[in-house]
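Dear U.,

For the methods section draft, I wanted the exact inputs and outputs in one place so we can describe them consistently. I've listed the two proteins in the order they'll appear in the manuscript figures. Please don't edit the token lines directly; just add comments below if something needs changing.

First protein:
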Amino acid sequence: MVEQRKKRRNIIFLIVLFALAAFDLFAWQEIFVGYPTSAAARAYFLDVGQGDSELVAFSDGVTMMTDAGPTDAVLGSLEKALPGKRYIDLALITHPQLDHFGGYNFILDHYDVGAFLYNGRDDQGVAEWTALKQKIAAKHIPLITLAAGDSVHYGNSEVDILSPNAEFRESAELNDTGLVEMVKTPDFRALFTADIGFNIEDWLIVNIKDLRADILKVPHHGSKYASGDAFLRIVDPSVAVIEVGAKNTYGQPGAATLARFASSTHAQIFRTDENGTVEIYADHGKLEVVRGK
């Protein structure tokens, strides 16, 4: 089983490298020339309204985007994070719900993408999902399925997929199927949690050896059904970001969730509805946060 997992990781790694290298030589030249290799990695939590969208710019300028919110609101936030750039190396869709993938339909009208990564699940009842898959296919962009145990490595950074396992991937609850990522850079560790709830958190506690993260993308927009005390104590983030829309109808973030953060962590909490896009990077070992990017 271990050997099979290692082989699968190698296959994913090679597919991603091939997709990126073969995509556009000019785009790669722009990446390597346009960014200084000494730049610190940066994580952006994009203000997209009621939805999720995260962007990591690694130290050499390679970019990986996770989710894109529900609408074209992502475009303005992305332009501010990557001014003048029109190429995203990797675009990941945690799960096929509109508030996580919808913005990619608009991104593909303005940006080139090296490869898409997702959990293999479909939601055929949503027209925007069908349209997105058609656009990806029409542009001949590789669409790669990932699951727990897979990793994407690049240079001195890696992204480990912690969930879903085979059982969760087939769940009738789409939130259970969301890709959970541990992003590891020389500057910080960031845990991106999609819309997972208590059940996935409990599974991660039992099955993942090291959940510690400097930065936590708060699960499910701060829902009262996520961010359990035990999970928060183990992750022990210094900074937590809630991606949520102003005056949303879901009552997010929940008062009970905020109380658990206060009692179980020492994290500074930022919210996209109050702070706009949140940018985080490390400076001499200390996390710096820029609000309203």
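Second protein (the one for the lower panel):
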Amino acid sequence: MPPKKNIPPVLANALLYQPENLVLSSCDIDEVRNTVGQSFKPHNLKPVRHTSALESRLHQFSVGHVSFHRLKYGGEVEVDPECLDDFFLVQMPLAGKAEISCGDCSLLSNCQQGVVLNPTQRLKMHYNSECDQLMLRISRLELEQVCSRLLGHNLKHPIEFDCHLDWLHSPAWLHMLEYIIQLQKDAPDCLQQTLVSRQLEELVISTLLSQQSSNYLEELTQDARSLAPRHVKRVEEYIETHAQDPLTPGMLAELAGVSVRTLYAGFRDFRHMSPMEFLRNVRLQRVRESLQNPDNHRTVTDTAIHWGFSHMGRFSKEYQLLFGEKPSQTKRKARA
């Protein structure tokens, strides 16, 4: 095991001494549940012992689609959020301990070991009375889009991170946190500037993607020799802008000026999928964007047909595999 490290002072004191960051200071369990639920998601919260009193506080600030939180319940509690659904959650205890039931496994978290919780995992948390955590809430959609841009293609499967986060022994992750928290303390107004917040948001997401083990880490960190050739990129760009058109392998190969065999080999070697799979994923992404629009009054079936899907059973299965939820769930959440 790596030697124990002390938490840097800028993180140990993160968010505590700025009144504008304080959004909750309460001993009332209903107020605590509602306020924390607004910052993350609605959940069940109960003290482990009925005689246990809470002295809860929550500080927070946002950088684009990433929000930083400092949460201490001040009592031994159990938290049941079910699944996070539309965000990833990074938890880093600065004091105390947490036990997290994550799917079929159990995680122990303390001031030396953090966790990364994925959106589709069934969760239950048990925090002891001393548990004081620095937490990052990261939009699932934004993280997926950054990952897609870095890869140069749409995601074939939902991103799944290794849950164990050895954050104190990752210089890139540690210094990224220090930089943003110090910047928020010294110049909070700059975080409201779009140019700055977008860059910092992508810094957080890119650091997580590059430093934390996941099902895309190997592909994300491959060297420059693996950059796709021009004909692959040209076909990708064409598909992105003509996804609604009836496209065939022959048409795409002719557009790229190569044979169908060469086109398929290029996609296989550099994108780990066929050009038609890439087209399917782009169309699935377009369907998702339509379903997430609350002003879209088309049914799921009509939206899928509009983007070229004729077999609804296969469409639903492929959609759920890529995004971790059924298309009807996406539309229902957009309406809500």
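Candidate sentences for the figure legend, describing the second protein: The two ends are 46 Å apart (CA to CA). Residues 161 and 212 are 7 Å apart (CA to CA).

Thanks,
Y.
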